[in-house]
Amino acid sequence: MVAQVVSGLEVARSIQDDLRKQVSEMRKKVPGLKPRLAIVQVGGREDSNVYIRMKLKAAENIGIHAEHIKLPRDCTEAELLIRLGELNESPDVHGIIVQMPVDSIHPIDNHLITDAVSPHKDVDGLNTLNEGRAALGDLSGFVPCTPAGCVELIKRTGVSISGKRAVVLGRSRIVGTPISELLKWENATVTICHSKTANLNEVTKTADILVVGIGKPELVRGSWIKPGAVVIDCGINPIPDATKSSGQRLVGDVAYAEAIQVASHVTPVPGGVGPMTVAMLMRNTVTAAQRYVERLIAPVWPLKVLRLNILSPPPSDIAIARSQKPKDIGILVDELGLYPNEISQYGNTKAKVSLKVLDRLKDQQGGKYIVVAGITPTPLGEGKSTTLLGLVQALTAHRGRNSFACMRQPSQGPTFGVKGGAAGGGYSQVIPMEDFNLHLTGDIHAVTAANNLLAAQMDARIFHELTQKDGPLYDRLVPKIKGVRKFSPIQLRRLNRLGINKTDPDLLTPEERTKFARLDIDTTKIMWNRVVDLNDRYLRKITIGQSPTEKGFSRETSFDISVASEIMAVLALGKDIEDIKDRLSNMVVALDKRGNPVTADDLGVTGALMVLLKDAFEPTLMQTLEGTPVLVHTGPFANIAHGCSSIIADKIAMKLVKENGFVATEAGFGSDIGMEKFFDIKCRAGDDQPHCAVIVCTVRALKMHGGGPTVSPGLPLHQVYVEENLDLLNKGLCNLGKHISNGKKFNVPVVIAINKHGNDTQAELNMVKEYALKNGAFRAVICDHWAKGGAGALELADAVIEACETPSNFNYLYPLDLSIQDKIQKIAFEMYGAGKIEYTDDVLDKIKRFTEKGYDKFPICMAKTSNSLTGDPTIKGAPTGFTLRINDIFVSVGAGFVVPMVGEISKMPGLPTRPSIYDIDLNTTTGDIEGLF
User: Does the keyword Oxidoreductase apply (predicted)?
Assistant: First the structure.
């Protein structure tokens, strides 16, 4: 008998051909994708270099991008672990191998290193988790390459493994032990032999399948082999051979010339198992990339829902929130398809999401875009945030659709003032609600610091210009450092704006130096205030600069609340970091004495602002009570600014939910304020197309609009709000009708969510529903998500799904090329129902100056009370034909909108007689926050 030679070269070539086709198919599913293998080598052993060159060549042949990462011989174990951690975290790397042996002058634990490679990227199959899976018959992980290649070669002989007696010589971690496990799970009866096995040659003669990997040249003789056996030789050993130019040749652990006379099949050395090891490595890498692709294109997240333990009547919001243990945020991150290097965890319940996600998913089709707004609310709010959260809980936890809620971060002003928490309510909340309502990840504090740094720099510049002559001022602005004088990049930008095309500070003329150095800020025309994230009425008007060190240069100014800062609006409207930087640089803080704008860039502070805001660019990932994802980002004032969460958060969410998913984002207050600004400012800035508007209403608010008594926080509700009163409700329905009409003007389907309260009767709820449907609502549904969580908003979820499937022909309310006054009129007439606009002479003068500077091309951000469709908060219902008076106007150049002021809108709220402060405490025994909501 002469054995058939089992050529690993031929089988490997066949496998590589198949892998090449698989890579091509992957790239059709994900254009631009290329499987990536990282080969990490420490030192430069020549034998390792030979193996690496083989792997690189095979990878190139298949279409795998193999990166050879060379680390020096003095690389320490810690340094190697750090590098592997970076590769583990990168979504661009699909497979990782560490070339063994590690050639370092420092001691390195090889087992620690192989276990440091993520099991999901361990294409060598040497991580203990993958080895353990294989030992238990779970081959879903990665199988070591040489053993996998051996099994493949045996199968290619046509000999069935099942029922055969297999003998494995060698018990190494890389070959012997794993091949024995694989053969066992192929239903062979396996015997493992090693250097201490007695009567080894007798044992080997019992083998139908003999696998040898013992590391001794030609140990196994022909007489050791059972006639007709399949022999797989894993050894590769150099022995002296004077006939070779190298003086040696390679042989296996089996005496090949003898074995070929006895066995039925035998592998040669070289050319047998060696090429298969490389082929199996390539197969594992392609498999890893395929798993990445499957995860990327999977239509639904593998999200584990948190079960609610619903009590009736529901306990307090904080009691409900604390009754639910959130998922570890790392689990949610993995469920959403995010990678470790794309998030920064803040404890176990929240994490920042990197903007790198947008780059990785740039080709991913986004989902459906939904805005949640309300009718004109009572001071108690109508549950807009609660409805937003109930909707996404219903969509994801109950309808199995990917969905995100995108919310603003609450200011500590309302938290400690009147409103209390803003995490939703009942069984539709963000958790942990204490974190959500307090510091969260520090974004508002970053905005506060950046805003106040700009204010400090402005006042310092005013002081230094008032106390220095031109020459010394210029010299201090452009000092010599180690004998060299040069402009910083931000100073070069100022020179460019001034039309001074010089880069050498010494070449500027005296006139150019003065022009560059003096901003000449008019202290009566300063628009930039300091901010604090609290309600503090005594900061509404203050005097600064009273210290003797300021030499009498005092001025009156004021503080705003932090969320009213233009920097907050800029963060919310920036499409990416470059856009944010450009907007920050263009913020106008004052006018100079010639009436020209002075910007943050003129003050040299743009870069410093970027540094302070670096982490605030990223939205914060949290979860609902049912474990569905929430992105929290920015919190611009809704009646002064545009009152929406960030464009960046929405865009990240749109990519993560994928084509068939949903992103629901809130807009402050009613359709007249929040929704209109969402459409005309936010959607325009982000170039986004909304698919549906959800407008939240309550019986309580509609009764108020029908003439019901005042609703005040902290006071019991009047009897008309807790008893059925269809007549009063009917009179107030006109307010709902106006908000439906407002939504339809943008050509999007309007879904009315009737947020059910405990005192509402079925007759009242039905009256609202029937009215909404008769007055143009796409759907009107009664929602009970406060009491039931997502299960109470199923009908709302179904209505939203249906609305998003209808053709949308979204349009803005006005084109940008209209004049400022025409845009104001369009909003006032169409959204509010006004019949006339009045302007003060000062406003008309400002409009003229804004137009001259090109600000008339900005959208309009009306600053108006949220408590009425008019400018008077006491007027309820849906009045028409009234006069709207514009008593002031300013421009936020960085944010990119013009702000007409309707009435007195304070940018610094005050604390009421009895603020929420009285109820808030820290339990010193348990550490729990009490009384927050």
Answer: yes
Give the 3-state secondary structure of residue 579.
helix
Count CA atoms closer than 13 A to 118's CA, side-chain side.
20
Pairing of strands 350-353, 597-599: unpaired
Where do the H-state alpha helices sit in 63-139? Answer: 77-89, 110-116, 128-135
Residue 906 pairs in a beta bridge with none
700 three-state secondary structure: helix
How many CB atoms lie under 10 A from the CB of residue 793?
31
Same domain membership, residue 824 and residue 756: no
For 309, 311, 432, 464, 629, the CA distances from 323, given in Å and listed in that order, are 8, 11, 10, 57, 18
CA distance 294 to 526: 56
Instruction: For 872-908, give the secondary structure using H, E and C.
Output: CCCCCCCCCCCEEEEEEEEEECCCCEEEEEECCCCCC
Contacts of 176 (CB under 8 A, 6+ apart): 168, 169, 170, 192, 194, 211, 213, 214
Which position has the token pair 């040749």? 249
Cis status of the peptide bond prior to 313, with omega within 30 of 0: yes
List the domain range (segments joined by +) for residue 423: 317-441+615-805
- Return the bridge partners of 429, or none: 424
Q: What is the CATH number of the domain that holds 480?
A: 3.30.1510.10
In a domain, 139, yes or no: yes
pLDDT value for 917? 84
Q: 538 and 431 share a domain?
A: no
> What residue type is assigned to position 607 of the chain?
G
Taking a C-beta distance cutoff of 8 angstroms, is the pair 184, 190 a contact? yes
Query: Which tokens is 726 given?
Result: 């269809």
Please tell me the predicted confidence (pLDDT) of residue 768: 98
Per-residue model confidence (pLDDT) at position 420 = 56
549 in the same domain as 404: no
886: CATH: 3.10.410.10
Res 645: pLDDT: 94
Q: Is the separation of the CB atoms in 237 and 198 below 8 Å?
A: no
pLDDT value, residue 419: 57
- Give the integer Cα–Cα distance in Å for 899 and 888: 8
Q: Identify the pLDDT of residue 250.
A: 87
Question: Domain check: are 629 and 595 in the same one?
Answer: no
- Strands of 686-758 (E only): list them: 692-697, 750-755
Please, are residues 562 and 448 in contact by the beta-carbon 8 Å criterion? yes
Residues 397, 385 within the same domain: yes
Which residue bears the tokens 């600053």?
863
* Tokens 């420490």 -> residue: 42
Residue positions annotated with a catalytic role: 55, 99, 124
**CA gap 867, 126 in Å, rounded:** 65
Closest CA to 116 of 128, 102, 99: 128
Residues of the chain with pLDDT under 70: 1, 418-421, 933
Same domain for 720 and 627: yes
Phi-psi domain of 700 (left: phi exceeds 0; alpha: psi -120 through 50; beta: other)? alpha
Overall domain count for the chain: 4
Q: Which residue has the tokens 């263009």?
A: 586
CB 556 within 8 A of CB 482: no
Distance CA 773, CA 781 (A): 10
